[in-house]
Amino acid sequence: MADDLPPTAWAVLGLLSFPGERTGYELKKWADASLRFFYWSPAISQIYAELRRLESLGYVTSLHSGAEEPRAKRTYAITEEGRGALAVWAGGGQGLGAPVLKHPVLLRVWLGHLAAPEHLRGLVTEHVARTKGELKEVRDALGRADGVEAWAHPQIALRWSERRLAAEVELAEAMLDDLDAVPGQPPGNSPTQG
Amino acid sequence: MADDLPPTAWAVLGLLSFPGERTGYELKKWADASLRFFYWSPAISQIYAELRRLESLGYVTSLHSGAEEPRAKRTYAITEEGRGALAVWAGGGQGLGAPVLKHPVLLRVWLGHLAAPEHLRGLVTEHVARTKGELKEVRDALGRADGVEAWAHPQIALRWSERRLAAEVELAEAMLDDLDAVPGQPPGNSPTQG
DNA sequence: CTCCACATGTAAAAGGTTACATGATTAG
DNA sequence: CTAATCATGTAACCTTTTACATGTGGAG
């Protein structure tokens, strides 16, 4: 049992562990709509590559709708072996690494001594707006998953993501206050609310 | 002006934009102690590689303490050109991508239908403990940066990280409750507090 | 008729990690 | 004396992205 696949492979296999069969293209959309909020969405070309690898391991099977269907596509399904391997992987995982966060906005704030204060505020404000948009996306996804028994756990992950994004907004707003309190800086365009 | 360096290169250059000169080895420790909380710490071998690239671009200079010092080491300093390029990079950044989060624990929770409920609880509990440890590390780093005027912005990034980790603990605890509420599951080993 | 979504894949390049190799200094 | 820390680097390998190439079907 090849147990040392990269997390991405398990994520793709995981996508197929829920009821139904899907194409690589569909998998990418699923990943964009939910996986990405807590574990990033691979490029479509990588999804195809992972699917081929998983198939070569016997963890998935594919069916090519060749002559029958007008539009040719390859539909993937998880095998029993794949489900077993995935369960073994899911059952392990003690001593997991810490979550990795790559936050471009924080990277710039960290280097704030090199930028104009208003510019920094602008980046953070933009980030807040974007995050609120993502919050809406998560809520939509949550709405779609609601009530479906097989999706109890994805739903928990989504609920976590929802709270996480709400926290991200609060974090950014608190940072805005910290930014305003940096000494040696003109009062700037931010009204000292109160 | 080669403006299309990967964020990692800017992060390493950024490390050198604070007062003082340092070796690649020291840079790695700095990254482990602060950068990693909001933007991951590159492998030491990659730091050396980035330093060589930055030097070839004229963004940093190095001094090899050859025959003089007993222990040979190469000390890096940012150049004016490097500082300029970094400032340009820091001054841009509108339309930044969303932060990328890779959360191994969430990935397993998402696949919770394949694992034993107690196992899931164990992973999350372990994650809470680890996060609390990181919280302590951030507070230590914050203590070291405290009062140093040149570090106002790194301090803001650290403060953000502190709040973020505190939020992470709360998020995980809320998820534990969600996990207990999954239907079709034995009451388990978690006492229904109340 | 044109644009967008569907659908799949290849190839090159970049990014990044791990393992390996080496050696001095310091703390216990 | 021994282990850990300091210190640097190479090479192989894997992961992942980007750009490219191709073609169908439906909506406006």
Automatic annotation (TrEMBL), chains A, B:
Residue ranges of domain Transcription regulator PadR N-terminal in the record: 12-87
SUPFAM superfamilies: Winged helix' DNA-binding domain
Coiled coil: none
PANTHER family reported for this sequence: NEGATIVE TRANSCRIPTION REGULATOR PADR (PTHR43252:SF6), TRANSCRIPTIONAL REGULATOR YQJI (PTHR43252)
Record protein name field: PadR family transcriptional regulator
Organism: Streptomyces aureus
